[in-house]
Amino acid sequence: MDEKKNAAPTTDALSRRDFIRVSAGAAGIAAMAATGNYAFAQGSDRIRVGLIGCGGRGTGAAGDCANAAPGIEIVALGDAFKDRLDGCRNGLRALGDKFKVTDDRCFVGFDAYKRVIDSGVDMVILASPPGFRPEHLRYAVEKGKHVFMEKPVATDAPGVRQVIACSEAAQQKRLGIVAGTQRRHQNNYIACMKRIHDGALGKIVAAQCYWNQGGLWNTGRQPGWTDMEWQVRNWLYFTWLSGDHIVEQHVHNLDVINWALQTHPERCVGMGGRQARTDPAYGHIYDHFAVEYYYPNGVRVMSMCRQQDGTASNVSEHLIGTKGSSNACTFISGENRWRFEGQNNNPYVQEHTDLIASIRAGQPLNEGRQIAESTLTAIMGRMSCYTGQEISWEQALNSQENLVPQKLEFGPLPVPPVAIPGKTPFK
Q1: How many angstroms separate the CA atoms of 160 and 22, rounded?
Q2: Which residues face 271 on adjacent strands?
Q3: Cα angle for residues 217, 218, 224 (degrees, 5° grid)
Q4: Which residue of 66, 193, 298, 329 could cross-link 98, Cys pair, CB 3.0 to 4.6 Å?
């Protein structure tokens, strides 16, 4: 589900004026940048890391981080569920001396993220379901911690605005933020993108991107589970937790398009639905989307994503320019023919290596804005498909629809109906 150097600078498509205007919490979050609470074990190469979200991706990310550079120690774990934490803890024991989690640094519950962050760590890995990401990031930056966070970074526009504000605050506090868009740390993508940005394709006029595959895992509801527990344990299938699969998964491909074009779309129109996974066990998300994005300078991008068993798979990107075309990673055809012949790296490890190296060099990477923009690109596509309307970037960015429950507790939580194009209102 998750695939994972900075080959291109972060786009400045959102102006500072727009950032201040749309970020409801910007003033308060910016104020915390003045505290000067910078995380790192001064005078030491040791970096103490806490993991928040102990599922498969979080466990994998912790292992990748520990193996990314010398001097990394995994020292704290937090998850909403004890069984998930215990499984992660047992799995990470294989790290040997790099794994130093003791009983008093294992935290369970919806507030576990605060206790991990407050446990004396220098850096945190945020790998809980995406709906929790903006609040977890806010608290980490407030407390002066470097952050590796999985993608996407929000499931609604208020969350995106909070991530942008946190990214600004982290920049001022010299805190690192790297996101799990691992293609930006993958050798073949980096080499290809450099040539594309240097003009190898000429003017890019169109693009396509896809994440079409079969279905994913589903955990049947167990006796005694509340609505909240069932939803969090099956977070893929609820929009407030995952953003729907166009956001949770297809964000990778859309991020590549934004990277190639060095900007975000101006508007989009799409269609989608729930055709194969109709059982209530699959929550209320769609199983297919098709969105046409309109970028500046008349560039049109066709985006497709699907999770239906027995269908053709395609996970890729394709760029078309006035001088040729490219898959954004291994070849360029046309006037400036090129094929990647170097040695590829493990991007899942490299993203941590790059973050750690930047922290130790005193020049921490900050990918907060670029992943916030890519996340919103996916969200606006979902908005268009859910409502059946054309959605502009400004509409998406300024949306007041807050999907995440205000109170997180293990109790009743009704599932919203499946969105119906033409009848579901834009908020």
Answers
A1: 10
A2: 290
A3: 150
A4: 66
Instruction: CATH 3.40.50.720 in the chain: give the residue spans.
Output: 16-183+349-367
Q: CB of 421 within 8 A of CB of 385?
A: yes
Digit-by-digit pLDDT tens for the chain (427 residues) are 444 433 333 333 343 334 333 343 444 444 444 444 444 444 468 999 999 999 999 999 999 999 999 999 999 999 999 999 999 999 999 999 999 999 999 999 999 999 999 999 999 999 999 999 999 999 999 999 999 999 999 999 999 999 999 999 999 999 999 999 999 999 999 999 999 999 999 999 999 999 999 999 999 999 999 999 999 999 999 999 999 999 999 999 999 999 999 999 999 999 999 999 999 999 999 999 999 999 999 999 999 999 999 999 999 999 999 999 999 999 999 999 999 999 999 999 999 999 999 999 999 999 999 999 999 999 999 999 999 999 999 999 999 999 999 999 999 999 999 999 999 999 9
- CATH 3.30.360.10-classified regions of the chain: 187-342+376-398
Query: Is-cis flag, bond preceding 152, omega within 30?
Result: yes
d(CA 138, CA 148): 13
Q: Which residue has the tokens 């954004």?
A: 328
Domain 187-342+376-398 grouped into CATH 3.90.1150.10: no
Identify the CA nearest to 246 among candidates 153, 382, 148: 382
Q: Which of 188, 195, 142 is nearest to 166 (CA)?
A: 142
Q: pTM, whole model, 2 decimals?
A: 0.91
Q: Which CATH class is domain 16-183+349-367?
A: alpha beta
- Alpha-carbon distance of 191 to 193, in angstroms, equals 6
CA–CA separation, 6 vs 371, rounded Å? Answer: 12
CB contact at 8 A, 7 and 259: yes
Is 306 within 8 Å of 272 (Cβ atoms)? no
- In degrees and rounded to multiples of 5, residue 66 shows phi and psi of -60, -30
Whole-Å CA distances, 22 to 395, 396, 398, 427: 11, 11, 6, 15
At 40, is the secondary structure helix, strand, or coil? coil
Whole-number CA gyration radius for the chain: 21
Phi, psi of 79, rounded to the nearest 5 degrees: -155, 160
